[in-house]
Structure formats: C-alpha cells, structure tokens
Write a structure and sequence with these properties.
single chain; mainly alpha; 13 helices; about 70% helix; about 0% strand; disordered N terminus
C-alpha cells in the first residue's frame, strides 16, 4: 500500500479507477467484433494492405482538420451540448461510408472526426478545461492518439502515460508556437509533426473501422453502427483522459501517477513500469 494514494479523496479515486480501466483496456476492437460477429483477432487484420496508404493519408488529413478546428473555433459556445446528438450526427455520416464504400473515406472521416472532436471538447469543458488555453485545446486532439486497440502493440509503448510521454515534446512545442504566433495556418512544421504523430496511432483505429464496414452485415447497416461505436469509444477515452487531467490539477501529477500505477498493479492491468520522468514537458 502506498502513502500518496491516501491523499486522493474516495470519489476521485473511484473516478481514477474507472479512467484506468478505460485507458488501459480500450474496448474499441471488442465493440467492432460484437457488431461484425467476428473474433477480435480477425477484425484488426481485415483491411487490405493496398488501402493502407489511403487510410494513412485520410487520417492525417482528418487530424489536420481537427487541429485547425481545435485552435480556431472550439472556444466558442458549442451549438450542441448533448452527447446523444453528437452520436446521431456521427451515425449519419457513417451511413455515407456504409452506403458508398471506401471511396467516401476522404470525405466521411474528416466529418466524423470533427463531430467526435466537438464531443471531446464538451467533455473537456465538463472536466474544467479552459479551451482558450492552447495546451488544453491540443489535449482534445491528443485523445485521438489514445486507445488504438492494436492487439500486438507493445504495452510499454501503448499504455496511457507512455503515449502522453511520446507526444509530450510535440505537444509542448505546438502549444508554445500557437501561444507566441497564434494559429497562423496549419502548414507550420510543429503542427504538421504533431498531427502526423497522432495520426499514426489514430490510423490504427481507422483501419479497424474501415475493416468492420467492409463486413457484409455491417455494410448493410450503412456504417451507422460502426460510427456510433467510433464515437462511443472516443467519448469514453475523453472522459477518462480529462478525469486524469482534472485530478492532476487538484492533487499534482506525481500523486495521480502514483495512484494510477497502484490501481494498475492491483487490477493487473498493463505495465506500471513506464514511469514518466517529472522533467518531461506537460503533454
């Protein structure tokens, strides 16, 4: 038993336990397997290699759209506060992909990514984030790097704090650039680099999404079910991610990390050995 974890109130510790379960055991691939009626290990390998380049390019484009949105319009009062309305809109955009297939991915994915980002931003606000702060707004986009659900991923590289650590430098540089120069365009190298790093991880989930929509029973549903699951997945990740950030603001990063690792150890969820050095920039 650790001492630091006792500094966290019971309600906050319960919230952290829920966040750990979501962030370290994302169920996106399981959701897809349930929809498609196929084993988990098959879904991740259905996407033909021939279209992997299209998925990568489209994921990068979608992340650049999300980055621009995060830096230019998310501080405005949201039109929709309902998570259900965001899901309905995402389902509608998914219907396009299901009806017309892969050719619509370059149009459908940026739309669904934008809708998901709007929902992520609302969750961030609920957890006390100030989205006029570039670092907080970028943290909304960072959610797309979490929980890819890749079954053969190295746990030491795919765990929540490992992903945050991997993105820390690019996040800090992008936030500093925007603070100093404003969002002067998405062609800035620091922003392209951040979008690319996030897109690499996001593309895994996109590949699985495309694969599931190719399954006949899913295609018959017009992709709406897949996009709803896609939205659910990132809403869950956002709620967990911004819970951790809220607790870090309240108790300090070291205390929260100690409690997070303790919860992992007790639950046997993922490694607790990828300690994030205190000197890393805040991701």
């Amino acid at each position: 038993m650790t001492i630091l974890k006792l500094d966290i109130a019971n309600d906050d510790r319960l919230a952290l336990e829920q966040a750990v379960a979501i962030l370290e055991q994302p169920n996106w691939i399981t959701r897809l397997a349930g929809l498609a009626g196929k084993p988990v290990e098959i879904i991740g390998n259905l996407t033909p290699k021939a279209i992997s380049g299209l998925v990568a390019r489209t994921s990068q484009k979608a992340l650049m759209v999300a980055l621009r949105l995060a830096m230019t319009t998310m501080t405005a009062k949201p039109l929709w506060r309902s998570e259900l309305l965001h899901k309905v809109a995402a389902a509608s955009s998914g219907a396009l992909g299901g009806a017309f297939g892969l050719a619509t991915l370059p149009v459908e994915l940026p739309v669904s990514t934008t809708l998901i980002l709007r929902s992520i931003a609302e969750i961030a606000r609920q957890e006390g984030e100030d989205l006029s702060d570039p670092e907080a707004a970028l943290s909304c986009v960072q959610v797309f790097a979490l929980g890819s659900g890749k079954e053969d991923a190295n746990p030491a590289e795919s765990s929540y704090f490992a992903v945050r650590a991997a993105l820390a430098q690019s996040m800090a540089e992008a936030a500093r650039f925007i603070t100093e120069h404003g969002f002067v365009g998405q062609g800035a190298p620091v922003l392209i680099r951040l979008a690319s790093e996030i897109a690499t991880r996001f593309g895994i989930a996109v590949s699985q999404k495309v694969a599931a929509q190719a399954v006949p029973v899913i295609g018959a549903l017009g992709g709406a079910a897949v996009n709803t699951a896609f939205m659910d997945h990132y809403q869950d990740l956002a709620r967990a991610h911004f819970t951790v950030r809220r607790l870090e603001r309240t108790y300090g990063r070291a205390v929260v990390r100690e409690a997070y690792d303790d919860i992992q150890d007790r639950a046997g969820i993922g490694p607790a050995s990828d300690k994030e050095p205190a000197s890393l920039p805040r991701p």
